[in-house]
Amino acid sequence: MYCQVIEHDVKRIYAAMHNGDYYDNLARVEKWTLGKVVQELKALDFETADHYISESDYNFLKQMAEKRNHWCHEAYQNFIYNKKYLQSHEYVDECRKLQRDNEKLSSVCRALEEVRIKAQKKFRNM
């Protein structure tokens, strides 16, 4: 859930910062992958010295795309075919990873929401 909200906020920040109509920009980026929109937002954000998102946060967003892919496509493969998977070491490991990622993503989600609101206000789009 947090990954999805973060993705939508990144797209809204890009739509606000990019020249042109906010809603036209948003429609244009709607089908972009998270990786592409992060890359494009970073390029746009770093055109000036006053950045909305730090270099390290852009690196985290790039890694987040990989984490999301893990949770959507890979996490269950390590244990799902084990009939007693709830007792398996692999299941316990994935649960720990999920809890750790969930805690980090929840704080990133809140911080990025603030960035989105600031960008939309500054660029007169909301």
Number of helices: 5
Kindly report the average pLDDT value: 90
Q: Rg from C-alpha positions? A: 17 Å
Structural class from helices and strands? mainly alpha
- The CA-CA distance between the termini, in Å, is 24 Å
The general outline is elongated
Q: Can you give the helix content as a percent range?
A: over 70%
Largest sheet data: none
- The poorly predicted ranges are none
Give a written overview of the molecule:
The protein is mainly α. The chain has helices spanning 2-17, 22-29, 34-45, 55-74, 89-122. α1 packs across α2 (22-29). The longest helix is centred in the last third of the chain and has 34 residues, at 89-122. The chain is elongated and about 55 Å long. The model has no long low-confidence stretch (mean pLDDT 90).
Which labels suit this protein?
126 residues; single chain; mainly alpha; 0% strand
